[in-house]
Amino acid sequence: MDLVNRRLPRRLVLQAGGLVAAGSLIRPAQAAGFAAVKPEQAVIGFGHVGPISDEGWTASHHQGLLAVKQAYPQAKFLEVESIPYSADATRTFRQFVAQGAHLVFVTSEYGDLLHGVSDRATDTAWLECNGHSAASNRSWYYVKHWLPSYVAGVAAGLMSKSGKLGYVGSMPVPTVYCGVNAFLMGARSVKPEATMQVIVINSWFDPQAAAQAGTALIDNGCDVLFGVMDEAAYLQVAEKRGVPAVMWNTDVRRYGPKSYISSIVLDWTKFYVAQTKARLEGSWTPGQPVLLSMGDGVDRDAWGDSVPGPVRAQADAVRTRMLAGYTPFVGEIKDAGGRVRVPAGKTMTDLELYGWNWPIEGVSGLRGA
Amino acid sequence: MIRLQRVSTVGPWIVVAARVLSVAAALLVGGAAFAVAGYDVPMLAGSVVRGSFDSLFGLEDLGLLFSPLILTGLAAAVALRIGLWNIGGEGQFYAGAIAATLTGLNLHGPTPVMLPLLALAGFAGGAAWVLVPALARAFLAIDEIITTLLLNFVAVLLVNYLCTGPLRDPAQAVTSASARIPYELPPLLDDLHWGLGGSVALVSVMAVLFARTRWGYEVRLSGANRHAARYAGIPVRRRLIQVLLLSGGLAGVAGMLEVVGTVHRLQGGISNNYGYLGIMVAVLAGGVPFAVLPAALLMAVILNAGTVLQAYGVSNYEVLALTGLVLLFTAMGERIAYYRLSRPMRA
């Protein structure tokens, strides 16, 4: 018996009425779509991994919420910050359901901690950022961050003197492997001997550890920094040490105006508004997972003062080609152990790039898989 | 003239009344602060009650918080019986989780056989984690507060190492975690598993062990007065070691239940600070095994209220402040209960 329905607002249960068998609340798994909801009755949830004041990852998703709010000011919004990767996450997601959320944006991958709730809360539509599995009421979305990472890598390769690049990573997960690899491939396209040293700090938000990692990388001779932190600590280190740096998430050049090269900037607003519109109109389906492309959710930021004109031009030429469909992620690509992992002439698919979990030749500090 | 006088014992009703009044006072102060900050306090309070008790989800959440808090609270309470402070519940929790994960991922068998085995592994992991502090305490008189505390950080780093290294499941995108453990605890109520039943059973076992057995008596006597106990022929050193191992083992079982029953994967952060909160539970319970149950329930309600309030836009930090307030007032009430106003008798 699906006990979840008992606590949902009556109107949701009534909408499901056609599917409710006599004396039972069991609903078929392939529940046919979601009924339309009036904006003034709509409840939209946002669950974040960090604080919305991080000026980075979570702030970018909060911008998405603000855009949805602007489009549907009558709707009710639930927003929970700093949800840990523990059973606390499960509790928070249940709260969204208990409050009758029609659509919930989970702005980080919570995996089993989310799916245990979403599989039972079939009247709520769920979107999991950076997720890996879908269901009749849940899908996932992310950005093709490897495209602007490659573009920024071209600039970094042109700007590096030592050819040693540094990367402040969170954990050995695909976003990190892919970001490192794409950036280094971009750099190697203009400086074939470039290498990249990675330090993972086991957190997405730990300004102190990120600053330490940045310092260690610079001490080790790295003369351009990249990373995937939710905040801007290593940019401040780079500024102090006179080393240029590429960031993630948002425009944070004010923390290092001399050092800032660019950022892998995120823009979820269009996607979030479109998904909300579909849900409210009753046309939402989990559909295909979405990877927002360059220019449509992710891009390089406007170049920083540290980037010379010719460098901008050369990197932007690559960007322009990419916008027209060019992909540099074509074999032969060797892993850090020298083994050919992508044979010559083979193009990596978006899903292969999304799930990249081995470091390419020239990367140190990341374990191979 | 009226004086404040400390009394050494008070009736159980006074203790209970003090507890209830302290919580009420804390909620009043917290509520006033929230009202000043512009929140609709009666609405929030209503949602907390509804969110915790009026829905199956709420009750499940409460149960899922309750169970590990019982065990980590019991772990700290058991050590208090012999006068020791086991601050390492957090590390022992993780050590139990690690042991259960390694066992669950590497040994294969039917679930009814595996579950007791995983619980044993969890117990052994927790006990092993406290072994060195226990021996150091018994033979070298090294303060167990420091050693158990420091080992917490080692355990967290070990979990992080295992999850990002040898046990990493490459399919996890955002956080590093082990593969899913292929055994599950039977459900008690949808997502709420039988870990709660097991935890309550362990409380009963400990209560009987300490109140009704010779071993328990020896432990209590050793806790009350170590020299008298030694004089009475009780092997105090052996009891110290045994009690700390038992304490660590209980925290280890909490880790096993969390990883096998609730989270299903070993990953950093799964302890939710249960190890540290357990110390608070034990203090609130006065080190008495059965009193761990209401103390852990109170803590579970507070933590669950935090989750409910966050969904209403109350920030994480305001919720933390509120939980701190409740604990502060409860601890104060605990002490104040032992004072009474008295009028000195005329000579």
Secondary structure layout:
The complex is a heterodimer of chains A (369) and B (347).
Chain A: H1 10-15, E1 43-47, H2 57-71, E2 76-80, H3 87-98, E3 103-106, H4 112-118, E4 125-129, E5 138-143, H5 146-159, E6 164-169, H6 174-188, E7 195-200, H7 207-219, E8 224-227, H8 233-241, E9 245-249, E10 260-266, H9 269-281, E11 290-292, E12 298-300, H10 309-323, E13 333-334, E14 340-342, H11 350-354, E15 363-364
Parallel strand pairs in A: 1-2, 1-3, 3-4, 4-5, 5-11, 6-7, 6-8, 7-15, 9-10
Antiparallel strand pairs in A: 10-12, 13-14
Helix pairs in contact in A: 2-9, 3-4, 5-6, 5-10, 7-8
Chain B: E1 3-6, H1 12-36, H2 41-53, H3 56-81, H4 89-106, H5 111-140, H6 144-164, E2 187-189, E3 192-193, H7 195-212, H8 214-224, H9 226-231, H10 236-263, H11 274-284, H12 292-311, H13 316-336, E4 339-342
Antiparallel strand pairs in B: 1-4, 2-3
Helix pairs in contact in B: 1-13, 2-3, 2-12, 3-7, 3-10, 3-11, 3-12, 4-5, 4-6, 4-10, 4-11, 5-6, 5-10, 7-8, 8-10, 11-12, 12-13
Describe this structure in words.
The complex is a heterodimer of chains A (369) and B (347). Chain A has 369 residues and is α/β, with parallel strands linked by helices. Chain A has two domains: 3-143, 3-Layer(aba) Sandwich (Rossmann fold), CATH 3.40.50.2300; 146-265 and 298-364, Rossmann fold. Chain A has helices at 10-15, 57-71, 87-98, 112-118, 146-159, 174-188, 207-219, 233-241, 269-281, 309-323, 350-354, and strands spanning 43-47, 76-80, 103-106, 125-129, 138-143, 164-169, 195-200, 224-227, 245-249, 260-266, 290-292, 298-300, 333-334, 340-342, 363-364. In chain A, strand 13 and strand 14 (340-342) form a beta hairpin. Chain A is globular and about 60 Å long. Chain B contains 13 helices and four strands. With 347 residues, chain B is mostly helical. In chain B, strand 2 and strand 3 (192-193) form a beta hairpin. Chain B is 71% helix and 4% strand. Chain B folds into two domains: 1-39 and 314-347, no CATH class; 62-311, ABC transporter involved in vitamin B12 uptake, BtuC (Orthogonal Bundle). In chain B, the strands form two sheets. A two-stranded antiparallel ribbon of chain B has the order 1-4. In chain B, strands 2-3 form a two-stranded antiparallel ribbon.
